[in-house]
C-alpha cells in the first residue's frame, strides 16, 4: 500500500510537471515526464495520448504514428483518430489519412478541418469547396480568416487546373493571402492585367503587415514576397515580356527561399524560356526540380509539365536514351496524353528516322481516335518536311472533323496547286461546299452562311484563274442567285460569259445598274480641300510653274556658270615653267631612265662627282626608304642630314614635281589621324 501510495504521489508530481511544460510549450521536457509516467503504468491512455501529442509538437510524426499503431488496443480510433490522421497527412500518406478520417465514429471540428486539407491535397476541389463552406457556416472562432483563405485557394485551384469559372464568394480581400489567391483565379481565366493589379495590392498589404512586427527583417519580408513576385514573373512570361520575367525569376532564386515547390516552378519556367538555347543554364536549373519533397508541394499537372520539360531538355542536349526513357515513363502514366508521343516522334526525326516517327504517330492515332486530329496534323507536317506533299494532303483529308474548315480548305488548295493538281484542289472546294449544304438542309429557305458563300466565291475565283470557266459560271450563278443586288458577282459572271457565250453576257449586262443610279453624291469642294487633294494640287501647281518658267526662258541666253579655280600644288612656283609631260605616266616621260636594281647594295663610286661616301650613306637602315627604327646612339644627326639629300641622278628637270617617294615622306610628316 505504501509503495502504491508513493507511486501515485510520484505520478501526480509528474502530471503537474507535464501540465506546466505543456502550458509553457516545452514539449521535449514534457515528453520526459510522460515517459516516466508510462514506466509506472505502460497502458495509461492519457499518458499515451500526451506522448503522441508531444511527439507531434516536436515534429516526430513517424514516431508518433508508431506509438499509435503499437497501442491499438488502448488507443482506439475514437480516442486518437485526429492525431493518427494528422500524422499520416504530415507524412504525405494522404489516402491513408482520408481513410482514417472517414472511419472515425464522430466527426469533430478538428477532423473536418483536416478533411478539407486532405481533399485539397487529393485535388478533389468540388468536395473540398463544400467542406470549407460547411466549416465557415458552422464555426465562429478566431480561425475564420484562415478558413476563408483556404476557401479562396480552392477556387483559385479550380480556375487554374480545371478551367472552372470561379463564383464570387464575396470575400473581403483584407489580407495579402486573399489578394494573392484572387490573382491566381484571375490568371486561370486569362485576365492577366487584373491579376497583376491584385498581386501589386497583395505585395503592398504584405509589406504593411510584416513591417508592423519589429522582429521581422527586410530579408524576411523579401522571402515572404517571393511567391508573389514569382507569380508576377509568370504573368510577364505569359504576356511575352520574357526578359523582365527572367530577371525577376533569377532575383528570387538568389534569395534562396526555403519553399522547394516555389523553386521548382521558377526553375521550370526559366527552362521554358531558354527552350533549345542556353541549355547549360537549363541543366543547372533542372536540378532544382529534383529537390526532395517537391512531389508533395505541387499539383499533378505541375509535376507532369516539369517531366515533359525534362524530356525535351534531354532531346535538346542530344541525350537520346534519357529522352526516350522519360517520354516512355510519361506515356505509361498518361497513355492518352499527346505530348509523350510527340516528344518521341521529335526525337526520331532528329535521328533522321522520319518513317518510324510517322508510324509511331499513326499507331497512337489508331489507339486514341479522340486525339487523332492533332496527331494527323503532325504527321502531315512530317510528310511535307520530307517533300511528300501529296501524301500530306491525303493525311489532312482523312481528318473528317476539319475537312470543311476554311483554314484546312485553303491549305489543301495551296498544296495541290503547288503540285499542279488542279482537279484535286477543285474537289476539295466541292466537298467543303457540299458539307455546308448538307448541314444546312433544315434551313433551305433561309440564307446560306457567310462561310458557305465565301467558299463558293473562292472556288469560282480559283476556277477562273485556272481556265475552268464553265464550272466557275455555275458557282457565280449560285452566288448571284443568293444576292441579285451583288453587282460585283454580276460583273464577274458577265466577264466569264463573255469568254464562253457572248450573247448570254449581253443579256446579263442589262441587269447592270445604269450610270445615273451608280452616280455617287460627292461634295467636290470638300474633296478638293481635303489634305490629300491639297498636296496633289500644290505638287501639280509647282510642276506647272516650272514648265512655264522653262517656256518663258527658251528664247533667253543661258547664263554661263562660273568656273571654280583649280587648286594648285603646295610647292607651286609661278616663276618656274611647269613640266609639259606632267600629265603623262612616269614610264612614258622622256627623262624616265627606268628603275635601278640593287639599291640596297654597296653604292661605292655611284655618288656625286667629287663627293665622299659617309658611313651613314652606306648603312641601308638609314636611307629614306627604310622604315623608321629607333636611332642608334650618336647617329641621329647623320640620319637627318642624309634623309634630305637627293642625288642628282634622280633629280628631275627644273620645275618638275618631286618624286612619289618624296611626296609620301611629306605626307607622313604632315599626316593627321586616320592611319
In short:
It contains 34 helices and no strands. The protein is mostly helical and about 675 residues long. Pfam families: SRP72, SRP_TPR_like, TPR_8.
Characterise this structure:
This protein is mainly α and 675 residues long. Among the domains are: 1-106, Serine Threonine Protein Phosphatase 5, Tetratricopeptide repeat, CATH 1.25.40.10; 318-402, Serine Threonine Protein Phosphatase 5, Tetratricopeptide repeat (Alpha Horseshoe); 408-512, Alpha Horseshoe (Serine Threonine Protein Phosphatase 5, Tetratricopeptide repeat), CATH 1.25.40. Helix content is 65%, strand content 0%. The chain is built from 34 helices and no strands. The protein has helices at residues 2-24, 27-40, 45-57, 61-70, 77-90, 94-103, 109-121, 125-138, 144-161, 176-189, 192-211, 218-238, 242-254, 260-274, 279-285, 294-297, 300-316, 320-333, 338-350, 354-367, 372-385, 389-397, 406-418, 422-439, 450-465, 469-482, 487-500, 502-509, 515-518, 524-528, 531-552, 615-618, 636-643, 660-670. Helix 5 (77-90) packs parallel to helix 7 (109-121) and helix 20 (354-367) runs antiparallel to helix 21 (372-385). The protein starts with a helix and ends in a 5-residue tail after the last helix. Mean pLDDT is 79; it is low at 601-675. One of its GO terms (cellular component) is signal recognition particle, endoplasmic reticulum targeting. Residues 605-643 have a biased composition (Low complexity). GO terms for molecular function: 7S RNA binding; ribosome binding. Residues 558-568, 659-675 have a biased composition (Basic residues). This is Signal recognition particle subunit SRP72.
